[in-house]
Specification:
Blueprint: H1 2-40, H2 79-89, E1 97-98, H3 101-107, E2 115-120, E3 128-133, H4 137-161, H5 163-170, E4 173-177, E5 180-185, H6 189-199
Antiparallel strand pairs: 1-2, 2-3, 3-5, 4-5
Helix pairs in contact: 2-6, 4-5
Amino acid sequence: MDKTSKASNKTNGRFIILIIMLLIITAITAWAAIKSVSGINNNTTGMPVTDNINNTGTAPVSTPLSTDAATKTPGQVDMDKLGKEILSKVQFETELKELDKTVAEGLIEISGGSKLQLYMGNGNYSDELILITASNKENAEADQEAVTQYLKDIRKSFSAYIPEQAKKISDAFNMRSGCYVVVCVTSDIDTAKEIILAAFE
């Protein structure tokens, strides 16, 4: 009976240690990502939306990337519905899942009062979907600049070890319309563009 109890306690102890190790690894990974993003925030140049991320000369999305992309005042857009439609109809190389709010806001520093929905997949792929609903147009502009800086940072990271994934980031669809910002990183960019623009018509 004592031997069984000792074996059980030993197994439980190992399980607890394993859980603690996983939590530590997760915390370190999140901390590294936050430090990486915050380290480049000082490099913001106030560039217009058509910056180096998308201004490659070959990307088919230069018009919607303009800071004046949406000169009309759009009606309200259901961003939850738009997100579901994009995730179901656009081809991504990996399954995207919504990050916890705290983790997402640690990666992209948005304005107070803005709502951020960040969908990411396997770390070997750059596919992402970013949806932001700001409280006003000015905050949306600031949020889009923050997203553009974030894209530059992750593109630099992917360029070092998975160049083909970095190209998808360069061709990302990055649009602001009124209080909304939508960014989609995918090789199926034409489908994404069509769905997003239709939502803001």
